[in-house]
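ARCHIVE CARD
Drawer: 12
Card no.: 0347
Subject: one protein chain, sequence and derived structure
Cross-reference: see card 0346
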Amino acid sequence: MIYCIMCGGTYTVWETPKQLALINGEPIVARTIRLLKEAGVDPLDIYITSNDDRFHQFGVVCLHHKNDYTSVLGKISGYWLDAFYPKFNDDQKVTFLFGDVCFTADQLRRGQERALRYRDRGQ
């Protein structure tokens, strides 16, 4: 199972990405990575999607992408997740996580269990 933490955005409201906001002294994205590792996920199966170089500090692969799926006059001009699908093989199962959400260990564990059950059913 691949975990893809989405950390893109234009950062127009804050001067820094929300994913780097500190929760108990730890950036939200670092917390998510730590919890995934603690749940037994191989660090090679954790990716961050962002064109911002500040995300290289977390020790996982940072995927850069051309984003043709941005807002044009307030409307989405395409399917933004499609920017990441070509990065993975067709047979790989990928779980996309929003990088600015502060997950609990239990939420990630339950999500991982559901994803593995889904995978094991061959779907």
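Annotation on reverse: The chain has two helices and eight strands. Residues 8 and 113 are 26 Å apart (CA to CA).
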